[in-house]
Amino acid sequence: MSEINIDSQTPNKIDLLGIATIPQAPPGFKSGFIGIIGRPNVGKSTLMNYLVGQKIAITSPVAQTTRNRLRGILTTPEAQLIFVDTPGIHKPHHQLGEVLVQNARIAIDSVDVVLFVVDGGVEAGGGDRYIVDILSQSQTPVILGINKIDTQPADDAQMLDTTYARVAEANNWKMVKFSALTGDGLVDLQQLLVEKLELGPYYYPPDLVTDQPERFIMGELIREQILLLTREEVPHSVAIAIEKVVEEPTITRVFAAINIERDSQKGILIGKGGSMLKAIGSAAREQIQKLIAGKVHLELFVKVQPKWRQSRTRLAELGYRVEE
Ligand SMILES: Nc1nc2c(ncn2[C@@H]2O[C@H](COP(=O)(O)OP(=O)(O)OP(=O)(O)O)[C@@H](O)[C@H]2O)c(=O)[nH]1
Ligand SMILES: [Mg+2]
Questions:
Q1: Whose CA is nearest to atom 2 of ligand 1?
Q2: Nearest ligand atom owner, CA of 115
Q3: What is the CATH number of domain 22-199?
């Protein structure tokens, strides 16, 4: 956090030490915002983590892992690319789904370039067409990115690509292939993105990789372990609130509430003799230790908050951006 301290003894003196200074960009420097858009589970967050070189967005094999827009920043000597990872777009079935799609539309309109990510391991389908429709209602330039090329069987690769090439041609979009898991093709992707950007300043200090506060990422790392360990049973009705972070000289104590919708989910989360909650806690603690590069004590509480997904107020309270 940057802040300006006015010294009360000498009211005109401003202490600049607390301000994170952003340097002047060199001549020819490019910058801009790139929205990563696509169906759930196509690898958007995995891609952003790879590109910025650090795990800032959680990923999982469960669809709808990402809930809030999250920025990842990649600064090179020639450009600053600000990636905006978004929740997967799908036809909404409940209030949270509608909020997610609405937020994705806002993300599309507020970026300089859209990177439309698809799963190259399967052919283009209805889910992709739903997004093509949304994208074609916007003025933002689009690049079609075929991810997961490591999963394409050699015999089918061309057939699969053709289904996407048709979409790209019909809309006059450039197409690029890569794997967010192996890193294959990502140099080309990065180059193509830089070409699309216009001359611009540093929007963020060059060493920053995300715009999110540490507390938010801590909550996400806990949610990731719930997604991975409880699988289909609880994940989508869970919201994490970091209630307190106490920094002591040798250890950081984190107190977090796991909010769920129904009493019946409590048992699954806590597990036999507390075994599930313990497993979630110790795996999340390891991840948080990596994030803050220090020792962590993590305490988890389970709270029942009925119907939070239906309530916009509750959504906002739990940290979801609810945009009109
Ligand atoms: N084999 C392979 N798996 C990938 C690749 N990219 C992502 N994955 C896997 O696909 C799953 C989904 O990845 P995420 O990054 O969470 O997908 P997402 O698009 O952000 O999903 P939502 O946030 O739910 O919309 C995870 O299990 C990833 O490990 C890839 O290039 N190859
Ligand atoms: Mg994601």
A1: 148
A2: 1
A3: 3.40.50.300
* Architecture in CATH of 214-317: 2-Layer Sandwich (3.30)
Torsion on CA atoms 275, 65, 217, 226, rounded to nearest 10: 0
Paired with 297 in beta bridges are 253
- Ligand 1, from 39, 44, 46, 68: best to mutate by most atoms within 8 Å of Cβ? 46
CATH 3.30.300.20 intervals, the chain: 214-317
Write the pLDDT tens digit of every residue in 272-321. 999 999 999 999 999 999 888 889 999 999 999 877 666 766 666 666 66
Could you give the residue range(s) of every CATH 3.40.50.300 domain in the chain?
22-199
CA separation for the pair 248, 175 (Å, rounded): 50
Q: C-alpha angle 156/130/121, rounded to 5°?
A: 20
DSSP string, 94-146: SHHHHHHHHHHHHHHHHSSEEEEEEETTS---HHHHHHHHHHHTS-S-EEEEE
Total-model pTM: 0.83
Q: How far does residue 72's CA lie from ligand 2's centre (Å)?
A: 12
Give the tens place of pLDDT for each residue, 80-122: 999 999 888 887 777 777 777 777 788 899 999 999 999 999 9
Atom 8 of ligand 1 has which residue's CA nearest to it? 43
CA separation (Å) from 281 to 14, 58, 216, 229, 287?
44, 16, 16, 11, 10
Report the distance separating Cα 164 and Cα 206, nearest Å: 35
